[in-house]
Each structure stands twice: as C-alpha cells, then as structure tokens.
Specification:
- The structure is a homodimer.
- By secondary structure, chain A is mainly alpha-helical.
- Chain A is built from seven helices and two strands, in the order αααααββαα.
- Chain A has a single domain (about 25-160), classed as Arc Repressor Mutant, subunit A (Orthogonal Bundle).
- The first copy, chain A, has helices at about 1-15, 25-45, 55-65, 70-75, 80-95, 115-135, 140-160, and strands at about 95-100, 110-115.
- In chain A, strand 1 and strand 2 form a beta hairpin.
- In chain A, helix 2 crosses helix 6 and helix 3 packs across helix 5.
- The model of chain A is unreliable at about 170-179 (pLDDT under 50).
- The structure holds a DNA duplex (30 and 30 nucleotides).
Chain lengths: ~180, ~180
DNA sequence: TACTGATAATCAGCATACTGATCAATATTG
DNA sequence: CAATATTGATCAGTATGCTGATTATCAGTA
C-alpha cells in the first residue's frame, strides 16, 4: 500500500519531468545523424562503392593534406584519435592509403593516398554530394541553408566539449595536393 | 611520367570535387551529435548517475508505457531492435528494469520499470533537461527553436530512410503509467 | 647529458549501431 | 487444418566512438 502510493507519486512527478523526445535537441541530433548515415550508405553502396562516412572524410582529408599524421588528421575531421587508428587500418587494408613511419618523427605515421584511393575518391565524391542533398530533401533551399548555419553555430560553441574537437591544421607551407 | 600526369589530373579534379566539411550536412550532423553525447555524459556523470543517452530514452519510454515489448520500444525511440536487446540487457543488469515473457504473446518480453528505475529517472531527468540546454548554448532562444523545428522537419521527411524509423505506439487503451 | 614532461600511436574494454541470419511463436491463407 | 508468411527476440559479425592505459619517442631543462 505504501509502496503503491510512492509509485503513484513518482509516476505523477515523472509525467511532468520527462520531456517529449521531439523537444530534445540530443534526440533530434541523433535521429538526423542516423538518417544521414543511412542515406550515405545507401547512395554509396548503390553506386558500387564500399566506404563509410568516416572513411570518406579521412580519405578526402588525406588527399588534400598528403603526408599528414594521424593526430592531425583526427583533429581536421574531428574524430577521436583512437577511432582513427582503426579507420586508417581499414583504408590501408583496402589499398586506398599507405601508412609509413615518418623520418622526422619516428612516433608519427605519414599517411598518403594511393592511386586506387584517388580513383575511389573522385568516383565517390559526386555520390556523396548527392547524398548530402537527399538528407535535406524535406527542407526548402533556404531552410537547408539555415539549418547548416545553425548547426555550424551550435557546433562552434560546443567544439571544446567533446574529446575530439575540430583542430585547424597548424603547419604553414604544409602541402600542395599534388606531388 | 604517365602515372604522375594522371595523378596531377586527378588531384586537380578532386580539388573541385570534394566539398569543405562545413558544407556537408552529414558532417555537421555527426559533429552536433558528438557534442550532444559528450554534454549528456558529462552532466549525467557529474550528477552521480551512470546512464547513457539511449538508456535514458529507453527508461523514460518504458516508464510512460509500462509492459511495452522491445520492438514497440525500439520504434518509439527510433532505435534498431538489435541495439535495444543490448540496451535492455544492461538496464536489467543495473536493476532499473525487469524483463518478463509476455503471456499474451510468448515471443514478446514485457518491460517494466522498477522502483529503483523510477528513482533514477526522476533524479536524472532535470540533469538531462539541463544538458539539452547546454547543447544549444551558442544559439539564441529563437535560433534554438528554429534549429529544432528544422531538424524535426528534415527528420520527418527522412524517417523511412533509416532501418530504425520512428513508429507511433499502435495500441489504443494501452496503459496508464500507474499500476 | 640525465631527467621530466609531453606527444603519436596503439591497445583493452565497453557501449552503441548496423546487416543479415536463426529460432520460436503467432497470424494468415488456401 | 496444414502450409506459408510474418513477427519478437536474439546472435554473429563488423565498424564506429569513447575512456583510460601503455609504449616509444621527442622536447625542454637542470
């Protein structure tokens, strides 16, 4: 009887305490990302490629910054360095990257895209582009732009709150994308 | 020589083909969610609780819909049913839930929140609420509302594109939250 | 130069998320 | 009723993502 009474009270309290999922930024963020990933996979696979979102991001970043080390790569695309280890593993496995010990710093591994990687990247880039459009298909162009603007602003304010914040590439005359 | 030439051409093509990450909805979606999860974890842990975002969502949904089965739960919070198996495992492990075979349908498991679960939920709900605010701290109130509106709209249009779409709870006179 | 602290990469361990398969039980249909 | 299809839960396998630890190396300093 007493227990039931407590239960009733708590249930009534909870009813007012727990918000609807649709009012939770965190829930909406996860849902949107979930859809984004599903669209990415569907489009990329349908085009005959086997590449995950993070693999694409890493490949593109290395293409633009040849010889980059893994920590810098992680900062550039805002992934945790421990995650990048496995991602690079799989890209090397697929023959899209090579990973060599750096001569300047023997702790570091220099990442280079292979010809195969370049071919894959140029083939898949338009597909990825199309997938990005698909994610916003429910919005008008203006709304899509506004969504991106608001996301960028919220992300900028929260950048340091995650373990994997975005980091600008530090080095100056770093690299031309061409050998 | 020939190879170098191909490499140069591809690199030039790639430069125009690969978009900046900041223009990719998918990238921004992941970053925002990454920050959202980090904020959630930090706030919840700081308040002395050990609960992940999906565990919170599941606990709240079961509290509102006692006796729900796992597939319905998954649809209600838009998670994949195979993911929910593990999530429920861990909530049962922590003593926040009980999972019993249903008498109506012996394939199904009926989920009930425990008193311990109710206590945890009522304690952590305000913390989760605060975390949701924190995620939007870079935005004005109006911008925050607009972001949520645009996310809801984009998600509604893409709902069926993921393997785990949101599903309304079907049954009619389903349940009062009180025993 | 020996010492101290920082850094690049990796690893172990845990918790999502997904695809595709299996198993048991239920629903549907000829 | 029997055959078939569907459904709820789980499992195997793969890939993120994270925390915290370890190892090798580098950088700065007493």
């Amino acid at each position: 009887m007493l227990i039931i009474s407590i239960r009733v009270k708590l249930a009534l309290v909870l009813e007012n305490l727990v918000k609807d999922n649709d009012d939770m930024p965190g829930h909406l963020a996860r849902r949107f990302q979930q859809i984004a990933v599903a669209v990415f996979h569907a489009e990329v696979e349908q085009a005959g490629y086997d590449l995950t979102p993070v693999q694409y991001a890493a490949l593109a970043a290395i293409s633009t910054n040849p010889g980059i080390d893994q920590v810098t790569l992680a900062g550039l695309i805002a992934y945790d360095r421990t995650t990048i280890t496995g991602v690079v593993d799989r890209l090397v496995q697929k023959g899209l990257l090579v990973r060599n010990a750096s001569t300047r710093d023997r702790r570091a591994r220099e990442l280079q895209i292979t010809d195969e990687g370049r071919k894959t990247l140029s083939g898949v880039a338009p597909v990825v582009e199309a997938a990005q459009e698909l994610m916003l298909r429910g919005l008008t162009a203006a709304e899509g732009d506004e969504l991106l603007r608001l996301l960028r602003k919220a992300i900028a304010a929260g950048n340091e709150l995650s373990r994997a914040p975005l980091r600008e590439v530090p080095e100056a005359g770093k690299s031309k994308p061409v050998t």
